[in-house]
Design a protein that fits this description.
Elements (H helix, E strand, L loop, with lengths): L4 H4 L6 H27 L5 H26 L7 H36 L11 H27 L1
Helix pairs in contact: 2-3, 3-5, 4-5
Length: 154
C-alpha cells in the first residue's frame, strides 16, 4: 500500500473529537454515579463481588472509547501528513504498551526483593486497561507530533 487513501475512509468525522472529550471528562463520574445509585437503591445483593469483577471494566469503557474517538477522528484539514502522524503515533503506542507489559512484572519482582514481601504477579487491570494504556500512549504521541509540526511551521 503506497498511499494512505484507503485508511482515511475508516476515520471518524471531526465531531467525534467533541464526544471523545465528553467521555474522557464525564465518563468516570457517570460510571461512579450509576454504581452509587445501584448501591443506594439496594438493587444488587452482592455489590462488592460485582464491583470486584466488573468495576474496572466499566471504568475503562468511557476512557477507551473517548481516547479512540480522539485518536481516530479526522482533523478539520485532514491530509496524508496527519494520517502518517497518526500511524506513527499508533506504532509508538504499541511499542510503549508492549514494553510496559514486559517491564511491569520485572518491576514488581524488583519491588518484592526491595521490600522483602512475597512475590505476586501484578494486576494489570484487565484487557481493557491495556487498550486504554495503548490509546493513551498513542494519543499523547499524536499530540506531541502535532505540537512539533505546528512549532516547525512557525
Amino acid at each position: 500500500m503506497k498511499n494512505l487513501d484507503q485508511i482515511e475512509s475508516f476515520l471518524l468525522t471531526p465531531s467525534y473529537r467533541k464526544w471523545g472529550w465528553i467521555l474522557l471528562i464525564g465518563g468516570i463520574p457517570l460510571v461512579l454515579l450509576v454504581f452509587t445509585l445501584v448501591v443506594m437503591t439496594g438493587a444488587m445483593d452482592r455489590f462488592s463481588a460485582f464491583w470486584s469483577d466488573w468495576g474496572l471494566f466499566f471504568l475503562h469503557v468511557p476512557l477507551s472509547i473517548g481516547l479512540f474517538f480522539l485518536l481516530f477522528s479526522k482533523e478539520k484539514n485532514e491530509d496524508e501528513m496527519f494520517l502518517a502522524l497518526r500511524f506513527k503515533a499508533m506504532m509508538h503506542g504499541i511499542r510503549f504498551t508492549f514494553a510496559a507489559m514486559l517491564l511491569f512484572p520485572l518491576m514488581a519482582w524488583v519491588s518484592t526483593i526491595w521490600t522483602g514481601q512475597p512475590y505476586h504477579f501484578p494486576e494489570v487491570g484487565g484487557n481493557l486497561a491495556v487498550v486504554t494504556l495503548l490509546l493513551l500512549y498513542a494519543n499523547a504521541t499524536y499530540g506531541y507530533f502535532k505540537y512539533q509540526l505546528a512549532k516547525d511551521e512557525e
